[in-house]
Amino acid sequence: MALTSWGQLPASPAAEERWWDERSAPLPEVGGTLLAYGNGRSYGDVCLNGGGTLLRGRGLWHFISFDPENGRLVCEAGVLLADILDVFVPRGWFLPVTPGTRFVTVGGAIANDVHGKNHHRAGTFGRHVRRFELLRSDGSRRVCSLTENAEWFAATIGGLGLTGLMTWAEIELRRIAGSGVAVENRRFTGIDEFFAINAEAEARHEYTVAWIDCLANTPRGILMAGDHAESGSLADVAKRPLSLPATPPISLVNGLTLRAFNFAYFHRPLPATAVVHYVPYFYPLDGILHWNRLYGRKGFYQYQCALPSGARDALGEILRGIAVSGQGSFLAVLKTFGEIPSPGLLSFPLPGMTLALDFSNSGSETLALFDRLDAIVGAAGGRLYPAKDARMSGRFFRGSNPRFDEFANFIDPKFSSDFWRRATA
Ligand SMILES: Cc1cc2nc3c(=O)[nH]c(=O)nc-3n(C[C@H](O)[C@H](O)[C@H](O)COP(=O)(O)OP(=O)(O)OC[C@H]3O[C@@H](n4cnc5c(N)ncnc54)[C@H](O)[C@@H]3O)c2cc1C
Questions:
Q1: What average pLDDT does range 121-137 have in this prediction?
Q2: Domain ends where: 137, 157, 176?
Q3: How do beta strands 288-289 and 242-243 pair?
């Protein structure tokens, strides 16, 4: 089966696949273009290279060294965050930053400079990367850090896999006392209430994130704040996740199922405080393997935008636009981004807020909605997340990334992706 991305949208021409597991070998010589493929957890086309070659980096799966004095882990770039957690949580260490799924590779996490629920305290994943090796198609190898090949370091973090192949990386883990997370849940109604309780929560908690009912006339949701619990370890209740065995012919997500789910989710009994295992707190969607199949054979899009701090009106307008359209997803996420700058030239976060939600692929109707949302995001000085995107125009991407031209100097001439061809069209 051809490699796809998480959104399972109808594919571009298939790419040739090469399994890549020899860290010291040069890149293969191919006629067309190359791109590293991590674990395909990007939603759109940053990890696809139709008509070219995809280098499957999961073969680079070894841990290399760990320094318990400072938490520095050196591992190959195809190691999954899930593998790091399995080995290091029992030893009292955690990822410095984690996205909403643990099934992503270290290489993929760096290439998209992923963010998590602690962006206001820790910034992006790239801030905790100390070094990595970059292998280029001309056979050259560079160790890149803040002090060595610093310009390559900045281009590769958030560089969408276009500067070459990372073979290994050193990241700094953080100490924890156990596997539990102390969670505080609060319901809110209206954007103003969200911002008020979120500001309070960010001052007190390391992690914050809100689920938002995108179909309600007045936006409402649940803010979930958390901190690593001070002691004790809990059993992971989700050791054997469920799995959606096959893709149904049509999407099971529609206006009716969405409204019913959102109503039940908002009104479900919710403890004000609880201590839970880290897996359901950080990775609620990992509990159902292949949940992306819910959206049927036409696949789905995710729309994730970042808006500057002053753009609350724009956020309100976007939410109204989505509610009126009747499209949207079960798990829409609203989160504020803090001030800590991202190290990458093309990193997505900017100080302000981010909204992320999935949309069944209903063809032109969905694309027309996105065009309307883009107009609001663009006017507000925001941008869209390449890791989640499969359709933004090159003009929009270039216009919303002021360091685009600077970045372009570092692209490996042999590397390209479906995303990049669109972004530069
Ligand atoms: C359920 C879910 C929740 C998510 N939540 C979040 C979130 O909260 N925050 C967030 O930021 N993202 C989130 N994401 C997106 C995901 O974290 C990113 O798309 C991530 O980059 C995927 O990593 P991957 O290993 O699957 O890489 P892929 O998707 O396969 O590739 C991603 C990019 O990395 C490049 N790449 C991969 N390996 C290498 C390498 N060795 N060298 C050079 N380039 C490489 C690829 O070329 C590609 O450009 C989520 C995704 C899912 C499915």
A1: 98
A2: 176
A3: parallel
| Cβ(335) – ligand 1 distance below 6 Å | no
Least reliable range by pLDDT among 58-62, 250-254, 355-359 = 250-254
State residue 380's pLDDT score: 98
Cα of 422 vs centre of ligand 1, distance in Å, is: 18
Query: What is the Å distance from ligand 1's center to 260 Cα?
Result: 31
Q: Which residue has the least CA distance to atom 7 on ligand 1?
A: 99
328 lines ligand 1 (CB under 6 A): no
Whether the CB of 38 sits within 6 Å of ligand 1: yes
245, two tokens: 């065995």
* pTM (predicted TM-score): 0.96
Ligand 1 atom closest to the Cα of residue 36 is: 47
Please state the φ and ψ torsions of residue 415, each to the nearest 5 degrees: -95, 145
- From the CB of 294, is ligand 1 less than 6 Å away? no
Q: Is the CB of 281 under 6 A from ligand 1?
A: no
Q: List the one residue out of 1, 3, 101, 43 whose CA is nearest residue 361.
A: 43
Does 108 contact ligand 1 (Cβ within 6 A)? Answer: yes
Please write the tens of the pLDDT for every residue from 303-351. Answer: 999 999 999 999 999 999 998 988 877 778 999 999 999 999 999 999 9
Round to whole Å and give the CA distance between 337 and 121: 9
The domain of 139 spans 59-176
List the structure tokens of 100: 């909403």
- The verdict on residue 19 lying in a domain is no
- DSSP, residue by residue, 194-256: HHHHHHHHHHH-SEEEEEEETTSSS-EEEEEEEEE-SS-----TTSS-EE--S--SS-S--HH
107 and 252, same domain (yes or no): no
